[in-house]
Amino acid sequence: MAIIDPVVLPGGEQVPQLGIGTWMMGERAASLKEEAESVRTGIELGMRLVDTAEMYGDGKCETFLGDALAGLRDEVFLVSKVYPHNASRAGVISACERSLRRLKTDRLDLYLLHWRGGVPLEDTVLGFEQLKSQGKIRHWGVSNFDTDDMEELWETPGGEACAVNQVLYNLTRRGAEWDLLPWLEQHEMPLMAYSPIEQGRIPVGGALAEIALRHKAKPFQVALAWVLRNKNNIVIPKASKVAHMRDNRGAADIVLDAADLAALDRAFPPPSRKRSLEML
């Protein structure tokens, strides 16, 4: 099993290209042990970036991770997100402190604005920068920002410190390729892809099945390998079971060739015009 490729953040820090998403984890008592085992397995396999949010289960997911990451915190690049309605200068600081308590840690490696809200970006940036100066976060970024949002952020005082934009991106949601991905690449900022296999809803027949057969892999692994093909993408699939986590890890070892990529373009065409950024 090869080492997971790194992605370089603005400023030079490297993070694993393949990480772990946790949306809807930690919400059912009967599943907590199995989900914790899955997360810990992923970390052992090198998927050391773990993403969560205060929105997930209204804090239950962060609380779950606080327990699941016991003894592993220093091995993990930990990401969480703040609700837009909590993203005022003072509100983002209070929200972060609540997340830190639930996660049983003294700092976040990356803190994201979950989506655009009514708070001026300048206020949110000021709050993020204050958290950085206090050592409570190491980097900050955004989520669900389209190209015009990124341009507005870039014009905001301090906005150029943004480290990541986390968006919905997979074979069936390719709109970001029209102008957002080129913008991020031009500004040397990674895209973090959530729901990279559309929460398991990507059609697995046709080209995906044929390519999977050639690579002795599963169709979902090929779909995940496709998102990983761009070395500026950080990819955060969720896996509540150990076997699924191991499958996700295996996707990082699949190298799709030009014929594979052409077949997937025919089956899942790239955008032919600008589309508004999609969200889940």
Number of domains: 1
Rg from Cα: 18 Å
What is the level-2 CATH architecture name? Alpha-Beta Barrel
Q: What's the CATH topology name?
A: TIM Barrel
Order of helices and strands: EEEHEHEHEHEHEHEHHEHH
Low-confidence stretches: none
CATH class category name: Alpha Beta
Mean pLDDT: 97
Tally of extended strands?
A: 10
Structural shape: globular
Residues in helices, as a percent range: 25-40%
What spatial order of strands do you see in the largest sheet?
3-4-5-6-7-8-9-10
SS-derived structural category: alpha/beta
Beta fraction: 5-15%
Number of helices: 10
Q: For the record, what is the CATH homologous superfamily label?
A: NADP-dependent oxidoreductase domain
Polypeptide structure, described:
The chain has a single domain (about 10-200, about 230-250), classed as TIM Barrel (Alpha-Beta Barrel). The strands form two sheets. The protein has an eight-stranded parallel beta sheet. Strands 1-2 form a two-stranded antiparallel sheet. The mean pLDDT is about 95. The longest helix has 15 residues, at about 90-105. It has about 280 residues and is an alpha/beta fold. α3 links the parallel β5 (about 75-80) and β6. α1 crosses α2 (about 60-70) and α2 crosses α3. The chain is globular, with a radius of gyration of 18 Å. Helices cover about 40% and strands about 15% of the residues.
